[in-house]
Amino acid sequence: MKIRAAVLHELGLPRPYGDSKPLKIETLDLDPPGEGEVLVKIHAAGLCHSDLSVIDGNRPRPMPMALGHEAAGEVLELGHGVDDVEIGDHVVFVFVPSCGHCKPCASGRPALCEPAAVTNGAGTLVSGDRRLCLDGTPINHHLGVSAFADHAVVSRRSFVKIDNDIPYEIAALFGCAVITGVGAVVNTSKVHPGSTVAVIGLGGIGLNTLLGARLAGARQIVAIDMREDKLEFARQLGATDTFIASDENCVAAVKEATGGGVDYSFEMAGSAKALELAWNITGRGGETVSAGLPHPDQRLSIPPVQLVAEERTLRGSYLGSCVPVRDIPNFVQLYRSGQLPVDRLMTETVRLDDINEAFERLAGGETVRTVMIP
């Protein structure tokens, strides 16, 4: 079948993206689903910094590639061997299609699935195949999803079924922003009630981290960003203290406000400099967590003696250390109950044809979560 999709042909085109238009809206050939695969009609897809980091070259991927990984849609066709979902079911995509059999999967850590890391890096589906083509040239899949399109063929392992009454534009957020941000708090760090928490970088994932800290019962939530409007929004969502990251006295001010540093510090900006800040505001015995994805060439320098003498922890969090089939339905129910108001994070909706301008606003820090409606 013919579909329309946003295809990246070249990494690192200059801003403003409204002028350079790194994403070309192409008419592609989409093959029918193979064994263990499903055809899904895309109804909503979130614009994430993980997409932006491919566009700007910070996360190199094989080109050309149809981008998009955070989305929700409706099942239209089942490939051979798929018998646990039905046509008409609503689904949220997951950008790590865990195999269930490798060592990380078997130990309950599907976000670290080894075969998925290989196929995601290669730009294929789980099968190793590509279902997209432009004038006879294969097009790579972004993280097994390629959701900036009106339809996608994906592995059955690349989505979780949800209730059909959740609006698609809200459901899409659970595929990355929610599970990454909230998951970092409740799964990676297991923040306990009464803790002090800091969040550096108040984009979609960072603000979900803030919501996760509220959900976990943190008594003090410190929000740090470069933009005052983001700090104001963080205060509306429950931040107790806010600081400008570029302030030369930021570390000292946070330590004073928190009595020596926070118990948990979450870096969600995708910058080694932000991670250094997160480390420096973490208190004795505390934990510093990074879910950002800086350029692979960036490096972090910390005094190793602090790890021992202060019993400090530095750790990463990918996909919020989530088990998607467990956590996405749980987080959706928390949204239903009002305990996880992720709908407040959606800044705007755009059409597929306006996606480059929307990424320019994201790159400029003007939006939290933009959702593309095909």
Number of strands: 18
Major sheet? 7 strands, mixed
Radius of gyration: 20 Å
Shape: globular
Q: Averaged pLDDT, please?
A: 97
Helical amount: 25-40%
Q: Structural class, please?
A: alpha/beta
Q: CATH class of the largest domain, please?
A: Alpha Beta
N- to C-terminal separation? 16 Å
State the oligomer. single chain
Instruction: Please indicate the count of domains.
Output: 2
Question: How would you summarize this macromolecular structure in one to three sentences?
Answer:
By secondary structure, the protein is α/β, with parallel strands linked by helices. The chain has helices at residues 17-20, 49-55, 103-106, 114-122, 168-171, 177-188, 204-216, 228-237, 250-258, 272-280, 304-309, 324-336, 355-363, and strands at 2-8, 23-30, 37-47, 65-66, 70-78, 90-93, 132-134, 137-141, 151-155, 159-162, 196-200, 220-225, 241-244, 262-267, 282-290, 313-316, 346-351, 369-373.
Tell me about this structure.
This protein is α/β, with parallel strands linked by helices. It has two domains: 2-175 and 341-373, Quinone Oxidoreductase, Chain A, domain 1; 179-317, 3-Layer(aba) Sandwich (Rossmann fold), CATH 3.40.50.720. It has 13 helices and 18 strands. The protein has helices at 17-20, 49-55, 103-106, 114-122, 168-171, 177-188, 204-216, 228-237, 250-258, 272-280, 304-309, 324-336, 355-363; strands at residues 2-8, 23-30, 37-47, 65-66, 70-78, 90-93, 132-134, 137-141, 151-155, 159-162, 196-200, 220-225, 241-244, 262-267, 282-290, 313-316, 346-351, 369-373. Strands 3, 5, 6, 9, 10, 17 and 18 form a seven-stranded mixed sheet that branches. Strands 13-12-11-14-15-16 form a six-stranded parallel sheet, sandwiched between helices. Strands 1-2-7-8-4 form a five-stranded mixed barrel. Helix 13 (355-363) links the parallel strand 17 (346-351) and strand 18 (369-373). Helix 6 (177-188) packs parallel to helix 7. The two termini are 16 Å apart. The model has no long low-confidence stretch (mean pLDDT 97).
